[in-house]
Amino acid sequence: MSKKKEKQKEEEKVDNGLNYNFTSALIGRKRYRILRMFFFKERLFFRLIVLFIILAAIFYPYPRIAMWVGFTFAAYSAIANDSIQTIGTFIASNEDRPWWQLWLYIGGIFIATVLFSWIVYDGDVSYQRLSSKGFSEAPTEFHFLQLAAPLILLIITRLRMPVSTTFLLLSAFSGSASGIISVTQKSLLGYFVSFAMAILVWLVLGKIVNKMLKGKPHPLWRVAQWIISGALWSVWIMQDAANIAVFLDRSLSIWGFIFFTGFIFFGLGLLFYLKGDKIQQIVKEKSQVTDVRAASIIDLVYAIILFFFKEMSTIPMSTTWVFLGLLGGREIAMQFSKHSSTGRKSIDTIRLVLRDAFFAIIGLLISITLAILVNPNIQEELSKYFSF
């Protein structure tokens, strides 16, 4: 049976079981049908989410257990969501390679990167990202929503929305509103810098870049891409390991480090086995990313930007916003360049860029809401500011 017929049969099965009630009348029959289809296809996923929510509700009053429960939720959800930024183009342009080869390479770089931080910074695996104001103290107690935040991220990821892991996870642990403001300011700066850098590279240097992408790629491009992708992945870990380690002690013991590293290493294996999972579509819908040369250029520019902001300060930032700025600027530049094309109408390209930015803003609003609900210090600051 063809895939098209299988899909039609599945849709008919769901459609026959639909109860078109007040909700369908309110949001429209077509939207209601699409929503029900989504929940039907993802029923196993949502059953697991319900189980994880129950575990979060059971263990959040016990800090030493809750920290590891929260970590396990955050580790996979953060890497699954942020895979589009760092290893998304790597996966897309290496689909002809066995998944385990890609896993061992990226997993090995992960272990080496966090091991260096753990040794040099006295047990800290975040490259001192958590030493900045508002994040320096390890949590001694947990709110239920802090453990639920990674699960919210998993759901949003399943919907293929590129939201910021940094905002969604770190905001729930910020000791003050100023900490969130600092992260937001640095992330916004990162978005506009990467957007401008992408336009510079693909518009101003479009003719040169377009020549590089013609014909069959030289075998050395594959070597260059693996090196560049590995460097980008390492720099990303230096920035975003804080999003996962925020649940844990700021200095990990040897056994804590082994569990931290081992869990994420095997989580990466699952991610590569699934070929990036649902969120990988965000990368595939962009222009030319499956070409090893285009992927290498994207990753090189991204790595340079991340390294610049890493050296700029220890304040955490949203690498998702940087990545969306980079892809957005690239799509705009290619759309209006004489030397390359996206294959879309201008309005469609603009909609694509605005959609990704809109989803990022949604993630920020959810993050701020979580931070307010979880943190009494922020609630007190806001009440003083608005004179409640």
What share of the residues does DSSP label as strand, in percent?
Answer: under 5%
Q: Residue ranges: pLDDT <50 for 5 or more in a row?
A: none
Number of helical segments?
18
| Rg from alpha-carbon coordinates | 22 Å
Secondary-structure element series: HHHHHHHHHHHHHHHHHH
The count of strands amounts to 0
Shape: globular
Structural class: mainly alpha
The separation of the N and C termini measures: 64 Å
Report on this structure.
The chain has 388 residues and is mainly α. α5 runs parallel beside α8, α7 (99-120) packs antiparallel against α13 and α10 (177-204) packs antiparallel against α15. The model has no long low-confidence stretch (mean pLDDT 78). The protein contains 18 helices and no strands. It has helices spanning 3-16, 22-27, 29-41, 43-59, 63-86, 88-92, 99-120, 144-158, 165-170, 177-204, 206-212, 219-245, 254-273, 281-284, 292-312, 319-336, 346-374, 376-385. The chain is 74% helix and 0% strand.
Summary?
The chain has 388 residues and is an all-alpha fold. 74% of the residues lie in helices and 0% in strands.
